[in-house]
Model the fold of this input.
Amino acid sequence: MDEPEGFREFVEARSRGLLRSAWLLSGDWQLAEDLVQTALVKTWPRWNQLIRRDRPEAYVRKVMLRTYLSWRKRRSWQEHPVADMPEVPVSGVDVEARQALRAALNGLSHRQRAVVVLRYFDDLTEAQTAEALGCSIGTVKTHTSRAMAYLRAVPGLAAALQQETL
Amino acid sequence: MKDEAQTLADLLQRTAVEPQRGIDFDAVAERVHRRRSVVWLAGSAAVVAVAVAGTATLSNAGENASDRAPAASATASPSPQETNAPMRITISTHCGVVSATVDGHLWLADPPLGDHNPPPGWDENEASGTFATTGPETAIFTTDAGQQAKFRLAEPGAPDPNAECE
Done:
């Protein structure tokens, strides 16, 4: 089977960014790698069409998101403890806030978590987030509002979010 | 000065640390090849089975053999994806039987069952059983209890109607 033109370069250039999103979604590097790999496998057959429409990354992210949501529905999905999450040691001035954020993400519903990642990490608009999730903008707003309310109440994170400057 | 959304975005960026390595392209390529091989082998097995059955029929058919030969030949040459081995899956029934994601592909119930609720007699939240393709874009799901639902392969990028089910 022929390798689609430009696909290898895309994987090499963009897979780290995709892995970061996948890690925020799944909370586990191993699952993140599997998510991204699965999304790329599904993208491979459609690559030439996507390149013509100039939006391959948006498609990969959508596939990744929907794969994540479908995996969450399966019984075989298992949450991994927070302690297993980072492969890279956490360091820096806001260690506590980042540790609190990682733990807090696990407390969100899977769709709230997806909305937080899409809106605030991938920087998608409400309309783009709704399209990626296959839901209405109103539903995105509801998930966002509930997620933010939850995050504001998490000890160690509330103060960081309320700061006007970091 | 940062607002809450920007602060959260910055925190997410710093929390999702850049992984040291990206996705190995060759691993993706291997999965693509393996996936296609499985589909091809399943299709080939079905062709062999049909051919054997056809041969047996012909050997027992006596003088009618020549009449039946064309039909047997036509049946024995489906495209590789027309027939596939049944897979065990679990689908959500909580908001009705509306969709199933099988091997990364979204299938839509045709027709949907249950009017946004578990269909009468089905389990309340999910149902396990076998999912067997009956054509390139059609399949039938049979629960362990014997209920059945027909499915049709969704168009690429189609939203999962079950995604709204909480």
Q: What stands out?
A: Chain B has two domains: 25-75, 87-164. The CA atoms of residues 31 and 105 of chain B lie 15 Å apart. Strands of chain B lie at 87-92, 97-102, 105-113, 126-133, 138-143, 148-153. Chain B touches chain A through 46 residues (CB under 8 Å).
